[in-house]
Specification:
With 255 residues, the protein is of the alpha+beta class. 19% of the residues lie in helices and 29% in strands.
């Protein structure tokens, strides 16, 4: 069986066959139970399992505030194969983000990232890990200058819509790389700029981090056929694209 998008049990299934299932994870949804929030009752893994009626196995992760394509395997054997595919970097991941400032039209950041533990989830981790190589390509899709003085240094505020293509998969890689470039992702409360986050909340009612896993491309782990999975944007994202006249800049990656 293969499907191409349906809402089941409050989860958006965007691809399913007998081996795999992919969802469009909403922002704020944890992938699985975590010490990060003991009171949380909704998790992507359990919701997906209940929707498809079988156990599912996560093969990669998305940060809680990141939305978009999240892939699960339906068996341990397929999960092992997919994990190897991700580890060997035979997967292409493309994200959309809104960042502060006018970023150059395209480029690559090759900047190793040190291990930064979470106080709860990483409390038993080795804190002496060496910095890991991390590489991200970016392409600017659109930009805008707004007549709002969010920063005291400038009478206007600038933002860019970018496509981000990580070549490695480090924790918070895209968020930390954009911060390192002085173009933090709007809405990022850990690595972003609080003034611009507050501006988007008050001016556009945008309460989320504007980072979305739009596309995942890989070879099917069983059939070997090319597989392209895409996830649509939520209402807050679309509101920003419409307000900034950026809708036409977000092309369909499948064409």
């Amino acid at each position: 069986m293969e499907i191409q998008s349906s809402i089941a049990n409050d989860i958006d299934i965007i691809y399913e066959d007998e081996y795999l299932v992919a969802i469009n994870k909403e922002e704020g949804l944890l992938v699985h139970r975590s010490w990060l929030d003991k009171g949380e009752t909704r998790f992507a893994l359990q919701l997906t399992r209940d929707a498809v009626g079988c156990h599912v196995f996560p093969v990669h992760r998305l940060d809680r505030p990141t939305s978009g394509v999240l892939l699960f395997a339906k068996s341990a054997a397929v999960a092992r194969s997919l994990t190897e595919t991700f580890t060997e970097r035979r997967v292409t991941k493309q994200y959309l983000a809104v960042v502060r400032g006018f970023i150059p039209d395209k480029g690559t950041i090759d900047y190793a990232l040190s291990f930064k533990p979470d106080a709860i989830t990483d409390k038993f981790a080795n804190l002496d890990k060496p910095a890991q190589e991390a590489m991200t390509h970016w392409q600017r899709l659109a930009q805008i200058e707004l007549p709002f003085a969010v920063s005291r240094k400038h009478d206007t505020s600038r933002y860019s819509l970018v496509r981000l293509i990580p070549k490695t998969g480090r924790k918070h890689q895209l968020r930390r790389h954009m911060k390192h470039l002085f173009h933090p992702i709007v809405g990022d409360t850990s690595h972003g700029d609080g003034r611009h986050n507050r501006f988007f909340r008050s001016q556009y009612e945008c309460t989320r981090m504007l980072l979305h896993a739009q596309c995942l491309a890989l070879s099917h782990p069983v059939t070997g056929e090319p597989l392209l999975i895409q996830a649509g944007l939520d209402e807050q994202w679309m509101n920003i694209l419409q307000a900034f006249d950026w809708v036409d800049s977000v092309e369909d990656l499948g064409h």
